[in-house]
Amino acid sequence: MTASESTSTANLATTPLDAWHREAGAKMVPFAGYEMPIQYDSIVKEHQACRSAAALFDVSHMGRLRFDGASSEALLDRLLTRKVTGMPVGTVRYGMVCNEDGGILDDVLVSYLKTPSDSHYHLLVVNASNRQKIIDWITPQLDDFPDVTFSDRTELTAMIAVQGPLAMEVCKRLFSFDPSRLKYYRATITDQFSKPAIVSRTGYTGEDGLELIVRAEEATRVWENIMLAGRDAGFVPAGLGARDTLRMEAGMPLYGHELNETINPITAGLKFACSLGDRKFIGRDAIEAALANGPKQQRIGLFLDGKRPAREESPVLCEGKVVGNVTSGGPSPTLGRPIAMAMVDTSVAENEHFEVDIRGKLAAATRTSLPFYRRPA
Amino acid sequence: MSRDKTKLLYAETHEWVDVAEENGQQVATIGISDFAIEQLNDLVYMELPEVGKALDAGDEFGEVESVKAVSPLYSPIAGEVTDVHEGLPDELDNLNSDPFNFGWIVKIKITDASGLESLMDYAAYQKQCAESG
């Protein structure tokens, strides 16, 4: 066998929780310009802990961009596939930033928040790998919105996800505002032992839970408080490895895999994250045309026979003909069998039986609706 | 009889080799090291070769797959596959717990022993692991 990941750490950034990860024995890997924990112990154990108790994820590498000023919503309305004007205070929306051709530059969460001193701002959470690209995309647009103050808060803050069926039960004790009172996709600014924290009921695992944004210097204290509070409940730290298997089971797209600049929101199956009729935004005409013409390809879910997982880029065949390729694939620890998401030609997207070419050998695959896993109600 | 990992030969690519005389022929039993298994973590699949397959030193003879990644298995020596541990892919947990005995992967009848010279002894392999770990 060959050594897997590159261990070169030249010019990589670290998160405010870096020392904690190393102390805990995490295996660190380069990811999107950061040194990040891929796993502390076993990816499968971390995955299972998230499904049965809760897991903590350091997601500080995600970009956090803040917009102050009355015209922020007009600026964001131009940039995002979702309408931002009129979002009630404390709401979060999932949307995309597209180019003029409708190609996806990033998928993002936008929140509208009220500070304790009663001012308001918008917060955009972007993928780590796209942070600089999105900043470069936004910066020239600011000329048209002179009252908007745009600031990159990524390095001043840390972001922690607490995800799992016991996450809310444990976390409700830790903040001034009981976060279990937040509905799904709602956010508030509260405090954790008198230090400010943005708390949102969002996540990327298919489980209930929270995402927290705190000041960088508070990150370790907040992380340790949650770990301690959740110790008896079975909370574990989890790395990027489990984050990926969890989001795959939950059928969630990942930028660079299911999404990229050659795919529009309609092809990606993300029409729900576009509001087309209410305003003009960058890429709208192209997305409307894609909707009118119908997508050439569609995203589907596959169960594979046997134990061998299919990986990204494996060709997908239907009746002996290549009809697409796998965008993400791997073992599903919860279901105990390999799963894959694939982009296939629309003409065969309703078919039931496919084959996946895994390095020269064909594995039978059966289409299934996404997500692969849905948490018990 | 239990294999002593300190008496085995090792390839740079983490395969172990145990050479023994069987029916007048040199046969290499091959597996992957405890270090490699720990690095891979969470094994989910193993692809084995067919009996009779001819291999040169350095040829890929199979692959082992973890939750995150696929790693090819390389034959440290030239020869012909005479036996394959067919049950191993269904018992990867036991490969974890006993990589040097239960975890044997293939036996190869050696046709050219020169590849053995480039293998490391246990001490040299440990040094490599320490440097990469």
Describe the structure.
The complex is a heterodimer of chains A (377) and B (133). Chain A is α+β, with helices and mostly antiparallel strands and 377 residues long. Chain A folds into three domains: 18-61 and 155-249, Probable tRNA modification gtpase trme, domain 1 (Gyrase A, domain 2), CATH 3.30.1360.120; 63-152, Alpha-Beta Plaits, CATH 3.30.70.1400; 296-368, Aminomethyltransferase beta-barrel domains (Elongation Factor Tu (Ef-tu), domain 3, Beta Barrel), CATH 2.40.30.110. Chain A has eight helices and 19 strands. Chain A has helices at 18-23, 43-52, 72-79, 131-138, 167-171, 219-229, 240-249, 284-293, and strands at 27-31, 34-39, 55-58, 63-68, 92-98, 104-114, 120-126, 149-152, 157-163, 187-192, 195-200, 209-215, 236-237, 297-304, 315-318, 321-332, 337-345, 353-358, 361-368. In chain A, the strands form four sheets. In chain A, strands 10-11-12-9-3-13 form a six-stranded mixed beta sheet. A six-stranded antiparallel β-barrel of chain A has the order 14-17-16-15-18-19. In chain A, strand 6 (104-114) and strand 7 form a beta hairpin. In chain A, helix 2 crosses helix 7. Chain B has 133 residues and is of the alpha+beta class. Chain B has helices spanning 34-40, 92-97, 122-132; strands spanning 9-10, 15-22, 25-32, 43-47, 54-55, 60-66, 70-74, 78-84, 106-112. The model of chain B has no long low-confidence stretch (mean pLDDT 93). Chain B is globular, with a radius of gyration of 14 Å. The relative contact order of chain B is 0.24. In chain B, strand 2 (15-22) and strand 3 form a beta hairpin. Chain B has a single domain (5-114), classed as RNA polymerase II/Efflux pump adaptor protein, barrel-sandwich hybrid domain (OB fold (Dihydrolipoamide Acetyltransferase, E2P), Beta Barrel), CATH 2.40.50. Chain A binds chain B through residues 1-5, 7, 38-39, 42-44, 241, 244-245, 307-309, 311, 330-331, 333, 338, 359, and chain B through 13-15, 32, 36, 39-42, 44-45, 47, 63-74, 89, 132.
